[in-house]
Amino acid sequence: MSLLASRSARRRVSARIGLYAALTAGALFAGFPVLWMLSSSFKSNANIFAYPPKLFDGSFSFAPYLAVLSNPVEIGYFVNSYIVALSVTLVTLVVAVLTGYVFSRFEFPLKRILNVVIIGVQAVPPITLLIPFFGIMVGLGLYNTYQGLIITYVVFTLPYAVIMMTAYFNSLPRELDEAAKVDGASSRSILWRILVPVSVPGMVSVGLYTFMISWNEYLFALTLTQTDDRRTVPVGIQLLMGQNNYLWNEVMAMSILGSIPVLVLFLIFQRYFIGGLAAGAVKS
Amino acid sequence: MTTNLLTPAPPRDEAVPAPPAPKRRHHRPLGARVEPYLLISPTVLLIVGLMVVPIVIVLGYSLMDNTITNPSPKFVGLGNYLTVLSSPAFWGAAGNTLVFTVVSVAAHMVIGVLFALMLNSKTMAKVPRAIFRAIYILPWIFTASVVAVLWRLLLDPSGVINYLLESLGVIHESVPWLGLPQTALIAVTAINIWSGYPFFMISLLAGLQGIPSDLYEAARVDGAGPLRQFVSVTLPGLKPILYSMALLDLLWTTQQFTLIWATTGGGPLGATEMLSTYTYKLAFNSYQFSLASTSAVLVLAASLIVAIFYVRRQRKEER
Known about the structure:
The structure holds 2 protein chains of 2 kinds. Chain A is mainly α. Chain A folds into 2 domains: 29-61, no CATH class; 70-281, MetI-like (MetI-like fold). Chain A contains 13 helices and no strands. By secondary structure, chain B is mainly alpha-helical. Chain B is built from 12 helices and no strands. In chain B, helix 9 packs antiparallel against helix 12 and helix 11 runs antiparallel to helix 12. The longest helix of chain B has 33 residues, at 30-62. The model of chain B is unreliable at 1-17 (pLDDT under 50). At the A-B interface, helix 1, helix 3, helix 4, helix 5 and helix 6 of A face helix 1, helix 3, helix 4, helix 5 and helix 7 of B.
């Protein structure tokens, strides 16, 4: 009896060791590249490919970050990214709230078709839209402008935002607005005074999604902008990479700086991210 | 994080099913009747003007001899389609896209399941679980532009990965992984695997928590070992998620542009040319806008096929 018990205890211990060994291996796979980026961003450029490579060599300094942050062109990329991403988030949120409200609370002809179109356009590959967008933006005089990029990203993020806001409003009890309607409130005041204040979690999810897509987008930022004063961070990173004989440490520093907004948002709003992400695949 | 357009489906009560509003339209004033149309007009304008119209435009371009650069393009019917579909470069790109996508999706699935199971292990305490989960999600934080420069650094001939492989005796001299036609496709696929698995893992983690624990207990009572439990309880429980995620991932990965463009640019010698980079180059490097539009329409058609499967799947589950 005791022999059996100790054998199963031993098996449990070895299973545990095995689990932690596997977890550590996985953590190296996931985390080592990020750690290397971080350590490279503090090295001197001469030491980037030092042999043998060391995670922390003697050359630790903030110089690469200072170089990025003291360069007006690079600061400009960040400013552009913030202007574009924040504007897109604001516009998409307002438009999606209005549309989600209508989809959730009104019946009207064409609703079904509109719904199908909004769901369907999400499958359209960006590369398919790129050529006509280029033509349209040049034609409208929006090539190489903030407005051009903002409209582009609003269109890209709107379908999902509308679907999410509609779902959120659908989850709110109808008694909320019925009562106000009986009291003679207009649809507009029902939306802004009653529904919007209780929809903050849904709006946070949509806002985070929208901000991230806009902050990270590369293909259209590359194609629809031409000069440094309109380019965004993902394009800026590639440009920094292409010039100056590979200033690896500065490229890594800029990559880290460019990832910080998403990282910070993720840390603050983790449950919204994971909720939104998981909602896609999890069916209760 | 991808910048693709198709995003995970929202909670299921989303789309149409709002209970029909009571029909007393004749009581309502005109203002109230047009109000919903006013409120949705920005969305309709944007979606029609910048999604539907561009698709019509790109379809039109694909039927013309060269547009944009040509002041008076002529209608050429399906001529461009014949040109593109008989071009070895197109099929080369299609083949690379297929390999890149299938291997990426399969690996995302395997790694996603494996990591989700490890993180879900009952023997782990809360704190290490949270730490490991945070580390495992890390690759998802970084956008493709950053992922590309990071891996160019890691895979450089004098970079750390070559050093490690040499020290382990796997290779005898450093390999320019992204610079050789034989290794470049493997390298970009590996990079894409690294950057894409967390999305699977997170969804599967949520899915695992949704499998009732009495199913495992019942299996244990019946004498099922860990492997048997995995095959008979875990996998069937995860199947709907795996299927949906695989289709979404298929759609996203076939559309991947940035990662390829910023690592190899489709080279060397077309070894990593994807349909996205092929189309982009036709348009913006050789100014063959009509042929590029044709290729873009073919990519759209392929995406729609996958999307139809996805939507049908979602419908089936809603029932």
